[in-house]
Amino acid sequence: MEDLAGDRARAGVRAWLDATSEAAPRRGAAAALREALVERVRAALPPFEAFLEANRTTVFRYLVAAVGREHADDVFQETFLAALRAYPRCTEVARLDRWILRIASRKAIDHHRRTARGPIPVAEPPEVPAEPAGRDDGRAVAAVAELPPRQRDAVTYRHVLGLSVAEAAELMGCSPQTVRANAYQGLKSLKGRV
Q1: Is residue 133 part of a domain?
Q2: Domain membership flag for residue 10
C-alpha cells in the first residue's frame, strides 16, 4: 500500500514540477529539485501499517465508548478502511492522530444513524459476547453510547482517552468552551443514569 501512495505522491510532484519548470537549461536543476521533493514526500508519511499500529488502541477505546463493545469492531474496520483510502492525500503528518479520531467520530455517527433506521428485533435479543474478566464497565459504556453525539464525543475524548480540552476542541471542530460545556452536561447526565 505504501508503494501505491508513494507512486501517487511522486506522480503529483513530478507533474507539478514539469508544469512549473520553464526552460530546457534549467532541466538539470529542476530534475534535482524534483528528486528532492519526491524524497521529501515519501519520507513525510509513515507506512500505513505503522500508522495503524500506533493509533489502533486509541481509536478502538474511543469506538467502544462511542458505539459500544459489540459494534466497535465493525466501526473500527470502517474507520481504517476510510483512512486507507484517504491516506495518500494527507498533508499534515503531525496531526495524523487527530485525523484518524475525526474519521472514527464520523463513522460512529454514521453507525448511530444506520442503527436508528434499522429494523427492531421482535424475537430473542442477539447473544452478547462475554465481558472480559476484570472489568465490568458495560453499564457505563452503554450509558455513554446513549448520550447525544456532541456530549458523547466530549466525554470520550476528555475522560476516556484523556485528551486536553484544546485537542478535543480541535477534533470536534468547536471552541474549548463548547467542549467543556458538552463534557459537563454529559457527565451530569451520566451521573443520573449510572
Answers
A1: no
A2: no
| Full domain range(s) for residue 157 | 48-121+138-193
Q: How far is residue 46 CA from its own chain's centroid? A: 16
* Nine-digit cell string for 128: 452478547
**Mean pLDDT across 40-48:** 73
43 found inside a domain? no
pTM: 0.52
Closest to 105 (Cα-Cα) out of 141, 69, 157, 165? 157
Q: pLDDT tens across 172-185, in order?
A: 899 999 999 999 99
Q: Which residues contact 167 (CB under 8 A, 6 or more apart)?
A: 98, 157
Long-range contacts of 143-149 (CB under 8 A, 24+ apart): 143/190, 143/193, 143/194, 144/65, 144/66, 144/186, 144/190, 145/65, 145/66, 145/67, 145/68, 146/193, 147/186, 147/189, 147/190, 149/108, 149/109, 149/112
Q: Residue 139 and residue 14: Cα distance in Å, rounded? A: 55
CATH number, domain with residue 62: 1.20.140.160
**Can you give the length of the chain in residues?**
194
Alpha carbon distance 78, 57 (integer Å):
15
